[in-house]
Amino acid sequence: MNHVRPKKKLGQHFLTDLNIAKKIADLLDSNSALNILEIGPGTGVLTQYLTSKKAILHLIEIDQESIHFLQKNYSPDQLNLIQGDFLKIDLQTIFGTDSFAVIGNFPYNISSQIVFKVLENKKQIPFFAGMFQKEVAERICEPPGSKKYGILSVLTQLYFKTEYLFTVPPSVFNPPPKVDSAVIKLTRKENFSLDCDEILLAKVVKLSFQQRRKTLRNSLKTLNLTDNLREDSIFDLRPEKLSGDDFIQLTKRIGYGDISN
C-alpha cells in the first residue's frame, strides 16, 4: 500500500479498514451477474475480497502507480486490468452485450458522473454498490420533499431500488477526507422500461431542478408548453414535491405533441 501515493487531483482517499472493504464486497453475494467491474481499485483493499467471487473480475484504474501495484500483487488470471478513465471508456468494448455489476470506493470528484454513466448503461447493469461522499449518497437515496431530493434522486430511483446502508467516518481513509462517507447499493428494478419518452423525461427532470426554487410553470417554460397545459395545477408545484411516477405522468402529458411550435 505504501507504494501508491494518494493523489488529490484524482480524488483518491484509500480505504484502510478491511472490515468495511469486506462488507462492501459481500454486497455482491445476492447478485447473479457473470461480470464484476470495480472502478478505481487503487491499492486493492476492496479487490482482494472480490477475487474470490464467482464472477469474472474487471478493474478500471486511471492511476499509473496503482496499475503497477495491482500488476505486482495480482496475476492476470485473477482479474482483467484496464487502464483508463471510466467516464470515457465504451463499456461495450469490454462486456459486449453481457451484464455486469459495478462496485467501488468511488473517487468523490466524479461520483455523480459515475452514477449518470451507470444509468446510461442500465440495461447491462443489474447491481451497483460502493462508497460515496455521504452528501451524494443521501441525494441518491432521498425521497421526495426535501432539499436533498433532486435530479440524481429522481433519475436513479426511477430505474433502481436505492438503499443507504451505513455511514463511514473519515478516520478509515488515507488521507482522511474532510467529510463523512457512506455505502449504498442500487438494485435494478424488474420493470425498468418506463412508460414514457425517456429522453424527454430526463430533460423535464433536469430543467425542473435547475431552477428548483421556481414552480414548474417557470422552470419548464423553455419547453414552450401550450397554454392549456400550463393551466394545470401541477405546474404550481416545485419539483421536489414530485415523485418519479409524477414525473413520468407529467412527461406523458407534455409529450412532443403538446409542445407548441
Please outline the helices and strands.
Elements: E1 14-15, H1 18-26, E2 35-39, H2 47-50, E3 56-61, H3 64-73, E4 80-83, H4 92-95, E5 101-105, H5 111-120, E6 127-133, H6 134-141, H7 151-159, E7 160-168, E8 173-174, E9 181-188, H8 198-210, H9 216-219, H10 227-230, H11 244-254
Parallel strand pairs: 2-3, 2-5, 3-4, 5-6
Antiparallel strand pairs: 1-8, 6-9, 7-9
Helix pairs in contact: 5-7, 8-11
What does it look like?
The N and C termini lie far apart (60 Å). A seven-stranded mixed sheet has the order 4-3-2-5-6-9-7. The chain has a two-stranded antiparallel sheet with strand order 1-8. The chain is elongated. The chain has helices at 18-26, 47-50, 64-73, 92-95, 111-120, 134-141, 151-159, 198-210, 216-219, 227-230, 244-254, and strands at 14-15, 35-39, 56-61, 80-83, 101-105, 127-133, 160-168, 173-174, 181-188. Helix 5 (111-120) runs parallel beside helix 7 (151-159) and helix 8 (198-210) crosses helix 11. It contains eleven helices and nine strands. Strand 2, helix 2 and strand 3 form a beta-alpha-beta unit. With 261 residues, it is an alpha/beta fold.
Q: Which shape, going by the Cα principal axes? A: elongated
* CATH architecture verdict of the largest domain: 3-Layer(aba) Sandwich
Indicate the low-confidence ranges by residue numbers. none
Biggest pleated-sheet summary = 7 strands, mixed
Number of strands: 9
Strands in their spatial order, largest beta sheet:
4-3-2-5-6-9-7
Q: Decide which structural class fits the backbone.
A: alpha/beta
Total domains:
2
Question: Multimeric state of these chains?
Answer: single chain
| CATH fold category name of the largest domain | Rossmann fold
Can you give the mean pLDDT?
92
CATH superfamily of the largest domain: Vaccinia Virus protein VP39
Rg for CA atoms: 20 Å
- Which range does the strand content fall in? 15-25%
Q: What's the helix-strand series?
A: EHEHEHEHEHEHHEEEHHHH
Q: What's the CATH class of the largest domain, please?
A: Alpha Beta
Gap between N and C termini: 60 Å
Share in helix: 25-40%
Please count the helical segments: 11
